[in-house]
From TrEMBL:
<feature type="binding site">
    <location>
        <position position="180"/>
    </location>
    <ligand>
        <name>substrate</name>
    </ligand>
</feature>
<feature type="binding site">
    <location>
        <begin position="215"/>
        <end position="218"/>
    </location>
    <ligand>
        <name>substrate</name>
    </ligand>
</feature>
<dbReference type="GO" id="GO:0008176">
    <property type="term" value="F:tRNA (guanine(46)-N7)-methyltransferase activity"/>
</dbReference>
<keyword id="KW-0819">tRNA processing</keyword>
<comment type="pathway">
    <text>tRNA modification; N(7)-methylguanine-tRNA biosynthesis.</text>
</comment>
<protein>
    <recommendedName>
        <fullName>tRNA (guanine-N(7)-)-methyltransferase</fullName>
        <ecNumber>2.1.1.33</ecNumber>
    </recommendedName>
</protein>
<keyword id="KW-0949">S-adenosyl-L-methionine</keyword>
<feature type="binding site">
    <location>
        <position position="95"/>
    </location>
    <ligand>
        <name>S-adenosyl-L-methionine</name>
    </ligand>
</feature>
<dbReference type="InterPro" id="IPR003358">
    <property type="entry name" value="tRNA_(Gua-N-7)_MeTrfase_Trmb"/>
</dbReference>
<dbReference type="InterPro" id="IPR055361">
    <property type="entry name" value="tRNA_methyltr_TrmB_bact"/>
</dbReference>
<keyword id="KW-0489">Methyltransferase</keyword>
<keyword id="KW-0808">Transferase</keyword>
<dbReference type="Pfam" id="PF02390">
    <property type="entry name" value="Methyltransf_4"/>
</dbReference>
<feature type="binding site">
    <location>
        <position position="148"/>
    </location>
    <ligand>
        <name>substrate</name>
    </ligand>
</feature>
<comment type="similarity">
    <text>Belongs to the class I-like SAM-binding methyltransferase superfamily. TrmB family.</text>
</comment>
<comment type="function">
    <text>Catalyzes the formation of N(7)-methylguanine at position 46 (m7G46) in tRNA.</text>
</comment>
<feature type="binding site">
    <location>
        <position position="122"/>
    </location>
    <ligand>
        <name>S-adenosyl-L-methionine</name>
    </ligand>
</feature>
């Protein structure tokens, strides 16, 4: 695995291609998080900017199993919970928030999770390096809504990005999005429905699936009166 500098003062490297769809995020870390990052990153971490050439995600795990790509894993609690409940699939989490990466690494060790790896950097660059049909599912939970109209071009759920993500799904694989931003939910729905190779599993917003854990972020949204919208689309065989 490649290395990551645990110093939160180090700036995030500029995007390799295209328009960045995320805010660079560092932040202060606890001593436990710093220790987890230092000790565990070499075993479980992947620096996207350090990758050279095509990438088979199964190679990160040392076994051949269905792979779930988590784009924007935040603090990692949901990713760890899903991976623990789903040991027959491997979870590849992508995040740029250093404390979140460190916290997920700590959870991986505490819960003995063998089916989690964490990548730091631009998820779209990682996906571009993957072969078609290599992912069983892609999760995009609570991405930055980029609410200002002039920033909509930075949203991750837009036609070109959806086409890229869908192309990496196996036949029958799912693209699952969730947001608490109503306007973005409508935009997501229109974009996903327009893709010619995706089928809307629920013909509209999906009921909240049991397999997606409720995070602190989601609880805050619900407490504030913001409904959460799930969308689940499946790639045609």
């Amino acid at each position: 695995m490649t290395s990551i500098d645990p110093n939160p003062a180090v700036p995030v490297a500029p995007p390799a291609t295209g328009i960045r769809t995320f805010h660079p995020r560092r932040g202060r870390m606890s001593s436990r998080q710093t220790d987890a990052l230092t000790r565990l990153w070499p075993a479980y971490g992947i620096g996207i900017a350090d990758l050279d050439g095509p990438v088979d995600p199964a190679g990160f795990f040392g076994r051949r199993a269905p792979v779930v790509l988590e784009i924007g894993s935040g603090m990692g609690d949901a990713t760890a919970a899903m991976a623990a409940a789903d040991p027959d699939r491997d979870y590849l989490a992508v995040e740029v928030h250093t404390p979140g990466i460190a916290h997920l690494l700590d959870l991986v060790q505490r819960h003995g999770l063998r089916n989690v790896r964490i990548a730091e950097g631009d998820a779209l660059d990682l996906v571009r390096a993957m072969p078609p049909g290599c992912l069983d599912a892609v999760h995009v939970f609570f991405p930055d809504p980029w609410p200002k109209l002039r920033h909509h071009k930075r949203r991750i759920i837009q036609p070109a990005h959806v086409a890229l993500l869908r192309s990496r799904l196996t036949g029958g694989g799912t693209l699952h999005c969730a947001t608490d931003w109503a306007e973005y939910a409508g935009s997501m729905r229109s974009t996903l429905t327009a893709d010619p190779e995706l089928d809307d599993v629920y013909a509209g917003y999906a009921p909240r699936p049991d397999h997606r854990p409720v995070t602190k972020f989601e609880r805050r949204a619900l407490t504030a009166g913001r409904p959460v919208f799930d969308l689940i689309h499946r790639r045609r065989p």
